[in-house]
Amino acid sequence: MTTALGPRTGTTAPLPAGTPAATRDRARPVRPWAKPLTYVLLVALSALLLVPFFWMVSASLKTNDQVFTVPIRWIPEELHWDNFVTIWDRVPLMTYLRNSAFLAGVITLLQVLTGSFAAYGFSKIRFPGRDGLFLAYIATIAVPWQAYMIPQYILMQRAGLVNTFTALILLQAFSAFGVFLMRQYYMSVPDELVEAARIDGLSEYGIYRRIMLPLSVPALASLALLTFVNTWNDFMGPFIYLTSNDLWTIQLGLRQFVGQFDAEYAMIMTGSVISVIPILLVFLLGQRYFIQGIATSGLKG
Amino acid sequence: MASTTLDRPAAAPRRGGPAGRRPAYVNRRQVRRNTLLGWSFILPNFVGFALLTLVPVIATFGIAFTRWNAYAAPEFTGLDNLTRLVGDENFRVALVNTLYYTVGHVPLTMAASLGLALALNRKIRGLAFFRTAAFFPYITSIVAVAVVWNMLYNPSQGPINQLLTTFGVSDPPGWTSDPTWAMPAVILTGVWKDMGYYMILFLAGLQTIPPELYEAAKTDGANALQRFRHVTVPCLRPTTFFVLIMLTIGSFKVFDLIVVMTNGGPGRSTLVLSQLIYREGIVNGRFGYSSAVALALFLLVLVITLLQYARNQRLET
Amino acid sequence: MKRRIVQGLAATAATALLLGGCGSGGEAAADETLDPDAPVTLTVSVWNLEGTPEFGALFDAYEAAHPNVTIEPVDILADDYPTKVTTMLAGGDSTDVITMKNVIDYARYATNGQLADVSDLAEETSDLAGLDAFDQDGSYFALPYRQDFWVLFYNKAIFDAVGEEYPTDLTWDEYAELAERITEEAAAAGVTPAEGQTTYGTYQHTWRSTVQAIADAQTDGDQLSGDYEFFAPYYERALELQDAGATLDFSTASTQKISYRTMFTTGQAAMLPMGSWFIAGLLQAEAAGETDVDWGIAPMPQAEDADEVTTFGSPTAFAVNKNAENSAAARDFVAWAASEEGAKAITAIGVVPSLQSDAITEAYFALEGMPTDETSRAAFEPDEVALEMPVAPTTSQVDQILNEEHQNIMTGSVPLEDALATMADRVQNEVG
């Protein structure tokens, strides 16, 4: 039986919707010590993963002169909570957060929409030149941005788009990353499913909207999450294209504390801690979809 | 809603799916119809992509055959830039370092992120917390990452070397301040930082695997390892392919991490290709040569991607 | 077929982009006359406007003297200033005045024909320190308004605590001995900045200039020459200080991103060779109540046989963009910033202007918080200020090589003699 299992055999009759979750719990530990051990390991690992973040929080509560010391002081001598107040006066943080949220939101939306739409064309419709075009997509990912930054800027300058949000949205909303990610996900959806829908008389657009989209919620969620995080944290794009201070994003705003000869690292870390919060919210919202995916089998839609 | 169509027998006639062999009766009209349909899906994304990425990238490759300072009109120099690459010691060092980073970073990150995804793709208490923790390295300020890891790596006072010393290592490595160990140190930090990112992709991929397959395998008496090999691995293949390609490309393009961790040093021990592209272009103002380095990097990645693509196509059919 | 069309389109667009001359405009009228009353909005590229008070001081003073002019700063982040300016100029940007953060980038913009010739303005000036650095075959494309040079900062409290005399005119050997002595004495006397921390005799920052530029200035060596034996005594001293534990070691300082400012203001280093820009930083921090360190300045340590004080430094300048929208107004601003009035405006906030006169020095030492002892005054007027790094088309490449080998030497990865030989070898073979 196991030999028959492959990615294309997904049409195994689905279980009735009411199957108790317990019978599906493939991770049920057999040995009594397995579960506590897993927890110990996971907690230890989490600690290791969170150490730099802890440093970041600690630095955000220090004065600039105390941020970099040898040896590192993990708990500040005195806690400068006022940093979290001062920063709002020092820079227009609200404007920066709003700009970042706007850009990340619009870019994520466009990326998810056009990316998943194009991915359908790349995975479920066969036409000449398709694979070559797809390779061109992937191949451009391989060119570092530093290499084509100047030609791209000249293009934007001539189009009169420099120093507008439009420039950044156009640059980042159509990246090959989203197309590639969604295409791979659609590849794992059995063609038989699409065929059956075609026979039922659904148009390709209908199949995309009524079958593929609902099926690919976890992938859409991960694409949205990663795009949001990348856009939110992007520095070079906004730096090159946005000049007016009222268009600046949070990452640009934080670098404002870097001077020619010295930097106010306490403020930078304070701002960084604040800037992580929206990402956390998006993450906590988005990752629910991965759990839901487990509960309702990917194939039952 | 889709379940009604799903219950149809698997033997539904194949028409034009990518996996199916192309049937002989597909005629020209069918091809034209499919082409139009396909393009109608791709076009909204393609317009933006072509204008703003493809065109500048192609222009860059054109510039690789010129001498250009970004201001005056470029001067065509034929293959000069490319022949210069061959004898350029900086290029050789950066290429070797980039390959070193990639060879170390790709398999380790792959294993770590898949391991994390498998561990966190189950119902356990505090799941949201553990997943968030795993994603944190990716969203922590890169400056904080550099400082803390460099502290951990500190040759005399760092905890890593203190641990090594207690285990009897008499001469522990100097990590980021030692040319021999700087690259392994950067690779390790890179894995730590990226694994949460790729974990997300694997988690999404794991959702595509129907639990029924595991049930069936279990009924057949397959143990956990066998289920992993015969269910998880094949079903996850599209995701694995994606992660592999993105990781490979990401490793070849590594920039930010190196800049904050070592900035290419000590000496040239961690100088990578994208840093060289940046230096030659923006810093030295030799955009022709900088583009030639980019072209070389591109061709290298293209060959590797094509190999992986071909291998993937073979495995999928 | 469609694909071919797309490819064709892409290729055409690419060619157009390539052959289009790429923003080398130059249409701006250089002979435009200046109407002193017409309202003008002058755009000036600056870095980190909020954290660099000299810009605000200059702009306010200029606007006060020229009511018809409104200055609109184009604020660019300090970290990647050259990246953005290079990109902007390549795109044909029309910002009027471009601030030249360093001489190397200036040389590149000037030779590429991106800046307007201001030689006539340069001729009218006198006593402008650092002007020579902007000489491009007899023409000038920028005028310096500030000139920084290196001095030796010291922490009076630490000197008092260990009972050492304040430094006045040290030689390098005396400096090294003093640093080692203070480190030992501080440890013996229990002088520590905070628990678990050490008071070092000095702090040598990680930049290569700390060793190489001063060696260039004080010997007849040349950093572009491809022969680096003249670095040897300076490196030997730097390594000896590090081995003796009299300064924080290079590896730790560079990987932990140690700030020289923190080392000095928190009392972790008794001495600090550093640029004069740090004076303004200290004055500002004191005014804001961030530090109460009691400091003074002395001339940089000198070679054994030196009979005058030689240090190094680098000027900062304003240039007129060739594509400037208001080139006449821009020229006026550049000339004004380099004049007595411009110098006064930045002196008021502790920045060292290019223009030097007794009046300026008086005004400088009258500043609140400024040490007024004789040594500090002497340090402020060195006999010779060499350019930090000579300017030539190969400068940035040589700079990278010297920097890489500097790391190899200071981390102890490569023995000094070998690294100096490699340096010479690489500069002779790789640059060009």
UniProtKB/TrEMBL annotation, chain A:
<keyword id="KW-0472">Membrane</keyword>
<feature type="transmembrane region" description="Helical">
    <location>
        <begin position="134"/>
        <end position="155"/>
    </location>
</feature>
<keyword id="KW-0813">Transport</keyword>
<dbReference type="GO" id="GO:0005886">
    <property type="term" value="C:plasma membrane"/>
</dbReference>
<feature type="compositionally biased region" description="Low complexity">
    <location>
        <begin position="1"/>
        <end position="22"/>
    </location>
</feature>
<dbReference type="GO" id="GO:0055085">
    <property type="term" value="P:transmembrane transport"/>
</dbReference>
<feature type="transmembrane region" description="Helical">
    <location>
        <begin position="101"/>
        <end position="122"/>
    </location>
</feature>
<feature type="region of interest" description="Disordered">
    <location>
        <begin position="1"/>
        <end position="27"/>
    </location>
</feature>
<keyword id="KW-0762">Sugar transport</keyword>
<feature type="transmembrane region" description="Helical">
    <location>
        <begin position="211"/>
        <end position="232"/>
    </location>
</feature>
<protein>
    <submittedName>
        <fullName>Multiple sugar transport system permease protein</fullName>
    </submittedName>
</protein>
<feature type="domain" description="ABC transmembrane type-1">
    <location>
        <begin position="97"/>
        <end position="286"/>
    </location>
</feature>
<keyword id="KW-1003">Cell membrane</keyword>
<keyword id="KW-1133">Transmembrane helix</keyword>
<feature type="transmembrane region" description="Helical">
    <location>
        <begin position="265"/>
        <end position="285"/>
    </location>
</feature>
UniProtKB/TrEMBL annotation, chain B:
<feature type="domain" description="ABC transmembrane type-1">
    <location>
        <begin position="95"/>
        <end position="308"/>
    </location>
</feature>
<dbReference type="InterPro" id="IPR035906">
    <property type="entry name" value="MetI-like_sf"/>
</dbReference>
<keyword id="KW-0812">Transmembrane</keyword>
<feature type="transmembrane region" description="Helical">
    <location>
        <begin position="132"/>
        <end position="152"/>
    </location>
</feature>
<keyword id="KW-1133">Transmembrane helix</keyword>
<keyword id="KW-0813">Transport</keyword>
<feature type="compositionally biased region" description="Low complexity">
    <location>
        <begin position="8"/>
        <end position="24"/>
    </location>
</feature>
<protein>
    <submittedName>
        <fullName>Multiple sugar transport system permease protein/alpha-1,4-digalacturonate transport system permease protein</fullName>
    </submittedName>
</protein>
<feature type="transmembrane region" description="Helical">
    <location>
        <begin position="99"/>
        <end position="120"/>
    </location>
</feature>
<feature type="transmembrane region" description="Helical">
    <location>
        <begin position="235"/>
        <end position="255"/>
    </location>
</feature>
<keyword id="KW-1003">Cell membrane</keyword>
<feature type="transmembrane region" description="Helical">
    <location>
        <begin position="195"/>
        <end position="214"/>
    </location>
</feature>
<dbReference type="GO" id="GO:0055085">
    <property type="term" value="P:transmembrane transport"/>
</dbReference>
<dbReference type="Pfam" id="PF00528">
    <property type="entry name" value="BPD_transp_1"/>
</dbReference>
<dbReference type="InterPro" id="IPR051393">
    <property type="entry name" value="ABC_transporter_permease"/>
</dbReference>
TrEMBL record, chain C:
<keyword id="KW-0732">Signal</keyword>
<keyword id="KW-0813">Transport</keyword>
<dbReference type="InterPro" id="IPR050490">
    <property type="entry name" value="Bact_solute-bd_prot1"/>
</dbReference>
<feature type="signal peptide">
    <location>
        <begin position="1"/>
        <end position="29"/>
    </location>
</feature>
<comment type="similarity">
    <text>Belongs to the bacterial solute-binding protein 1 family.</text>
</comment>
<dbReference type="GO" id="GO:0030313">
    <property type="term" value="C:cell envelope"/>
</dbReference>
<dbReference type="Pfam" id="PF01547">
    <property type="entry name" value="SBP_bac_1"/>
</dbReference>
<dbReference type="InterPro" id="IPR006059">
    <property type="entry name" value="SBP"/>
</dbReference>
<keyword id="KW-0762">Sugar transport</keyword>
<protein>
    <submittedName>
        <fullName>Multiple sugar transport system substrate-binding protein</fullName>
    </submittedName>
</protein>
